[in-house]
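Fold this: Threonyl/alanyl tRNA synthetase SAD domain-containing protein
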Amino acid sequence: MASSQAPPPPSRTIALYQKDGTLHTHNTTISSISPLSTLAPETQALFKKSDKDADDNNNNNNTREYLVVVVSAETIFHAQGGGQPTDTGIMTISSPENENENENENAQVTEKPVFYVQSVRASPPSILHLGIFKGSPSSSSSSSSRFTPGVHVTQTIDVGPRLLHSRLHTAGHALSIAVMSLTQPSSSSSSSSSSSSSSKPAVVLPSDLKEGKASHFPSAASIEFHGLIPGTAKQAIQEAVDALIARDLAISIHFVDEAEALRRCGPVAEGVKGDVNAEGEGKGDVRLVEIEGAGAYPCGGTHVRTLKDVGRVVVKGIKRQKGVSKSHMFGIVRGLTLSMIEQGETYNA
């Protein structure tokens, strides 16, 4: 694999997973392929050391020398970001006519190359797939020489991890909605009758509670809130999220402009910019994920179709720690951690 050539100019990748998260296989074309070591330092830095470590399952001496980055015209691989992990999977040449004409003359080539996608990152306007080819390091050059711009490939994601990540991500939004539903009413709406006040939740959270960052990684799923949530609120939060999941609301995707995103999502959409990789109506569209009838969030992740597809969301605990923001001290509530339980199987999240 030649390493002296300059990297090709970036090409746009359409993120198909942002419009249809149920696509598990897809045919597309290669836009570029480059050894990781030839890319700009800031591009290499997108991939952590763990992304570059050996993968014994691929039977490769997986060193930086043999790691390559593939860019395709479209992708179903979720690029890590927004609190959601990367997708993994494979790419294979999808039809015989795309193979090199001299392949039959090469006795060493006995099967189509398989590119193992180990990590995916967005580098607008491209989406980068980091991985290595099946076989020994000596076969890597031969395999990559057949993955050339214009070649048709079939992308296949690892479905199990994708489904878990989608459930966790949707559960995070549901949990946020449940928590915010417990915030106390404003003074203008507090003058209600005694009969209506009797239906209010036993635990009422501060009205100035604000949603913060979220993690949807397995074993580290959590939502942060700026404000004080007492430990005694755990049961009330659990009941609120149980009630929301039981409604089995549909999950829908919308592409809107920034003003509409702010109108529909409120403060959580402040500063949100459109994603040039999104397959909306045009560049710069903001992608909203809506739990219909409950709330919407600007989000680039994958999700299940309805809330019941999430399974049960278990609030494992509430932790508080001090943080500093704009020289103002406030409590950050961390660790509304989820445990996904469905059909007797537990996924620690």
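The two ends are 40 Å apart (CA to CA). The first helix runs from residue 41 to 44.
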